[in-house]
Each structure stands twice: as C-alpha cells, then as structure tokens.
Amino acid sequence: MWEQIRSNQIRSAVLVTLMALILLLVGFFIGLALGSPIAGLIIAFIIWGIMTLVAFFQGDSILLSVSGAKKTSRADNPQLYNVVEEMKIASGLEKMPDVYIIDDPALNAFATGRDPNHAAVAITSGLLQKLNRDELQGVIGHEISHIKNRDVRLMSLLAVLLGAIVILANYAWMFAFLGGMNASGTNTNKRRSSRGGGGTGIVQIFVVVIALILAILAPILAQLIYFAVSRKREYLADASSALYTRYPEGLASALEKLSTSTTQVKAANKATAPMYIINPFRKKGMSMSDLTSTHPPTAERIRILRAMGGGASLADYERAYKQTKGKGGIIPPSALAGEPTATQSRRASTYRVVATG
C-alpha cells in the first residue's frame, strides 16, 4: 500500500516537527522561569536533536530492551520462526525480521524497526503458549504488515520523542516549584523595600505558572498526537494479515483470546503501549469493550474480520469494514484497484514452511 507508506513518511516528518515545537515551548518557559529563555531553547533543541537521532538509529533497540525482549532463533523456536518466515514471504518483505520473545505471561506482540531491512517482531511467552498455529500466523501477519507499511518507524520515533517530552516536563514541574518558592520569597522581601520590586515578583510568579501549565499540557498533547496515528494503522494491519494468511478467522480467534485475558504486560509503559497489537494496560471488565484511544475496540476488530464471509482480500475487508462501521472505508483506493488477489492467495500456501525438530 504505497499510499499508506507515503502517508507514514509525511506523518513522520510532520509529527516529529510538532513534537519539536512542544519540546521547544517547554524549554523556552523553563528558561524564562530561570532567567534565560534562549538557554532554555538551546537545551531543548539539543535534547530534541539527540533524541531524534537516537530514535531513528537506535529506537528499535531501546524499545526491545525496555520491553525485556530476548532474541530467539529457528533452533530455539522452530514453529514461531517458520511462521514469521511464511508471513515475510507472503508480504513480499526482502529481509527476514529478527524474532524476539518477551518472558511475560500476558498475551501480546509488537513490531519495531526503522525500515523493513532493520525490523524485529516480538511476542510474549504467554502468547506463544496460548495460541495455535493459525492464530499465531494471524498475529504475526498483523505485525509484519506494520513493518511493510513503515508503521514501525513512525511509532518508534514518536515513542522516544514522547519520552523526551515527558522527561523535560517533569523537570519543568521541579523548576516551577523551586522557581515559585524563590519568586514568592523575592516578592515578600521586595514588598518590604519598595512597591516596584513587587511587580518583578509578580512577573516571576506568572512565568512559573506558565511553565507549570506547559509542564502539565505538553505530555498530554504529545500523547494525543501519538495516539492519533494508532487506530487506522491497526485496521490496515488486520486487513493485511487476512490477505497474507488467507484465513481471517486465525487473527479473529487470536484477538478473542487476547481480549479475554486481563494480564497486563509488565514492561509496557505509556510510550510503548500503542506498539502492541492490543492495549497492554487492560483491566478486569474491559475484555470486550476496550475503548482505549491507542487501539480500536477489540470486539469491533473481531466483528469486521468475521464479517468477511470467508473472503480474504483487501476488498473483502473493505466491504466488511463498511458493513460493521456503517461509514466510509479504510483501504487506500490504489490498493483496492491493483490488488493481486490470485497471486496473494497462493503465497501463504505455496511458501508454507513446515517446522521441524
């Protein structure tokens, strides 16, 4: 889906720029509160530059490390490795993604990497134990789609940049608190000596209040930007998984199992949550009505897959999506117009690799 790939490239540039503006705004007011707004801007810009470079070249390694993922091989997990290989061939990826396992009883998975040649798929040990082969194939197909569509670069960049903004905002809290105390003390002393000094103290307090407001709003705005790109990509990945596997029920059944499990992923955090195939922070009573802003409701995703009526093409998913949602479609027009259904339908069966050992 070249339209989705191009859209992700444009979004990467736009959203990284928006993240930078938020970061610079926070830095400016922290610097203003400390008496040097230019210094605050310079520090924020340096942080943004470093974090962007780190996110692009090392973002996947950071996310895998934070998640506690360990690399595995064909010898250690032949079935998992072969399923990944099948989906790599079915999707047309040139390079086999690295395969990782997260030692966690929760049922979840994610993909990461800056491009298809530097990508990885990670799944929890709980998911590996609970899913059958068809279900596992559906999940891996979903994650491989994120790699194919360049979703992973966009989300990796945003995850690291969001972390940087949250860190800077936390410092803003600290500076605002300390600055507020100093401004209050200064204002009290100045009032004792002259009326003009009180004006200076009021200005200092005003600057501290602005810094405090930004410290509260910056991470919220950053997360809203981050979450805004999550939902559509999940629908598209579901559609691609059905296409690659030729068996939508596999992913539907896997999502059903994932949705009934309330075990949370231990290593997940707010920055990495949208990377997972399903919300990793789900609580008891939210199994089939997960309305998290990072993911579409799981029950809805399952209904769409099962409404495909045995079909497995992008056109079948588009029809099922419109039928279930009662509104416009989700698949880019170019993908529907040039969908090589016959070729795609043979890929998964022709290149199916049988696990040995």
Brief overview, please?
The protein has 13 helices and four strands.
What is the rounded Rg? Answer: 24 Å
Ends distance: 36 Å
The CATH topology of the largest domain comes to: Zincin-like
Please write the string of helix (H) and strand (E) elements: HHEHEEEHHHHHHHHHH
Tally of discrete structural domains: 2
Q: What is the CATH homologous superfamily assignment of the largest domain?
A: Metalloproteases ("zincins"), catalytic domain
Mean pLDDT: 78
Structural class: alpha+beta
> Low-confidence parts, pLDDT < 50 over ≥5 residues?
190-196, 284-293, 340-357
CATH first level of the largest domain: Alpha Beta
| Largest beta sheet: strand ordering | 1-2-4-3
Number of E strands: 4
- Tally of helical runs: 13
Biggest sheet record = 4 strands, mixed
CATH architecture of the largest domain: 2-Layer Sandwich
What is the strand content? 5-15%
Helix content: 55-70%
Q: Specify the overall morphology.
A: elongated
Written account of the structure:
- The protein is α+β, with helices and mostly antiparallel strands.
- The chain folds into two domains: 2-57 and 163-227, no CATH class; 66-153 and 230-350, Metalloproteases ("zincins"), catalytic domain (Zincin-like, 2-Layer Sandwich), CATH 3.30.2010.10.
- It has helices at residues 2-34, 37-66, 78-91, 125-130, 133-148, 151-193, 195-228, 230-245, 248-260, 298-306, 314-325, 333-337, 341-350, and strands spanning 69-71, 98-102, 109-115, 118-124.
- Helix 6 packs antiparallel against helix 7 and helix 10 packs across helix 11.
- It is elongated, with a radius of gyration of 24 Å.
